[in-house]
Amino acid sequence: MRPTPRGAWRHMLAVVLLVSSLSARGHAATITIVNLDGPNEGFNDPTPATPVGGNPGTTIGQQRLFVFNHAAQIWGSILPSAVEIRINAQFDPQTCDASGAVLGATSAGSSHRDFPNAPFPNTWYQQALANRLAGVDLNPGVNDMDITFNSNLCQPGCPFCWYYGVDGNEGPLIELLPVVLHEMGHGLGFATITLAGVEMGTPPGPHVYDRHLYDLDQAMHWNEMASDGQRGASALNCQRLVWDGTCVTSGAPARLGPKPLLRVNTPVAADDEVGLATFGPSPFNVTGNLVLAMDGSLPPDSPTNACGALTNAAQIAGNIALVDRGTCPFTLKVKNAQNAGAIGVVVADTMPGCPPLGMSGVDPSITIPVVRITTDDAATIKAQLAGGVNVTMMFDPTQDAGTAEGKLLVYTPTVFATGSSVSHWDISPEPSLLMEPFATAGLSHNPDLTVNMFDDIGWFGTPGPCLNSTGVPIDPVVAGVFMSAPYPNPTPRGATVEFRIGRPEYVRVTILDVSGRSVRTLHEGMLPSGNHVMRWDGLSTARSEVPPGIYLVTLRTSEGVQSRRISVTR
Predict the structure, then answer these.
(1) CA gap 290, 344 in Å, rounded
(2) 385 and 440 housed in the same domain
(3) Number of structural domains in the chain
(4) d(CA 281, CA 369)
(5) Residue 416 lies in a domain
(6) Which of 112, 219, 321, 492 has a Cα-to-Cα distance from 454 of 20 to 30 A?
(7) Which CATH number characterizes residue 345's domain?
(8) Which alpha helices (H) appear in 137-224, and where do they start and end?
(9) Whether residues 78 and 162 fall in one domain
């Protein structure tokens, strides 16, 4: 992980502890962290320190050790295993400069397949998970993972500093606790050994992680793809590779907020992914016409960067300004547009890439919303400006941030990033998730959807109900009956509805308007247990197109009613 616009990380640790509490299912794991640091360094650093944020250590080494014990207790109290989990850990110098830092790095001690009780044949598992499933230590001479943390933080030339409290009050510092939880998460199974689409291992084969990597364009899981080329293309398929495990999918709506986006209303309806700013109001819902900002600059500067006072303020006033990225801070661009009377700002990236990153800066005087879109989306919009483009900058309550077609996105930048691509969630979820590739403020002790992901890959055994993000079993109603978010959403005419029922029963699937009146019944009658897919064509019972608006897709069974929102556009 790295601290960049959102942070940065990779890590290593050391601690010895025993955990005696019960996990969500079965006895808690015993986690032993093996200190590899030498005298006067890392966990043995004798530099005096003042106790902070619930950490009683009086030296830097003691405080580091306390944080890692605390992280190990969190994972140990959640995960069940009869086999001790041993972690090699240390602090060593890593890359750090003014632009970012490597916080830590993790690798599993070994991977195994076709062991006793393996849920799937010819499938690789990281050592800790394989041991848990086998019930024995499959490689007693090798510890389960190796983690290294960056000792260069707060040293000359490195402007980033660790916060050793465990209370989430890190301020401008980088809290160590969530970084440790993140790196331990990788070693416990949140990663694939399939590198850039190429299956590794001897013999080569899929990893259990690959079974839940689903490419929306190829309509296949990674373990179903016939070639390294297919998986390699999927690893670069920006915001089209999702995690389709049931437990993550069922837990995500309770964790994630509404999805920020730029909705193009006219001339051609479309939803564009956006990056958010650290300044200005949020959330927001602003509709207006887009006008390209002009600041009078001469080459080589671009007049559309809005780095100076806008010369077309009369056209900008009361509308949403479109400005190009480059040569000056985001806050200056937005303030110039605000001074010209803009009601919002859309920043267009000038370099190819996906998804759009966030925008940093501080200016309390900025009162209008701002979003950032990709170069490709900006090019499409600019080609339509002459005829007029109307957009809405919004947070869509019918969609969860960080998802596509109702499934959580996996990190797939268009340039493969070794150690980051695929083995993280995408950077678009809001609030941010622990297993994103960049460290962000607001994360502390909560493993959030990482617990659900571990449920998907077998940490809690099968069968059994999924766990929620706090490690508590989800109510059997949700576990036995689950409906995914309909897709596409929003939709111009119709959508696909997917749901699962745990036993044969009488089912009713209905489309309702927001007042609760029935618009269309998709199914009413008995269905067998398992997964079901239905298609709504966007028509009412009378076979006429329903008007634009928000509708509810409801699933009624003997266990109650579940509903999902869907937005219909025309």
Answers:
(1) 9
(2) no
(3) 3
(4) 6
(5) no
(6) 219
(7) 3.50.30.30
(8) 176-188
(9) yes
Lowest model confidence (mean pLDDT) among 181-195, 230-244, 309-323, 485-499 = 485-499
Distance CA 26, CA 133 (A): 13
For residue 15, pLDDT over 70 is answered with no
Band (297; pLDDT cuts 50, 70, 90): confident
Residue with token string 């009086």: 58
CB atoms inside a 10 Å sphere around CB 229: 11
Please give the Cα distance from 314 to 336 (Å, whole number): 13
Burial-class residue 418 by CB neighbours within 10 Å (0-12, 13-18, 19+): exposed
* Cα gap 135→294, rounded to integer Å: 67
Residue 413 has pLDDT above 50, yes or no: yes
CATH number at residue 526: 2.60.40.1930
Q: Are residues 181 and 37 in the same domain?
A: yes
CA atoms within 13 A on the CB side of 124: 22
In a domain, 408, yes or no: no
pLDDT on residue 473: 52
Strands (E), 59-193: 85-92, 96-97, 100-101, 104-108, 111-112, 125-126, 145-150, 162-163, 174-175
pTM: 0.79
H/E segment holding residue 555 = strand 549-557
Mean pLDDT of the chain: 88
For residue 26, the model assigns a pLDDT of 52
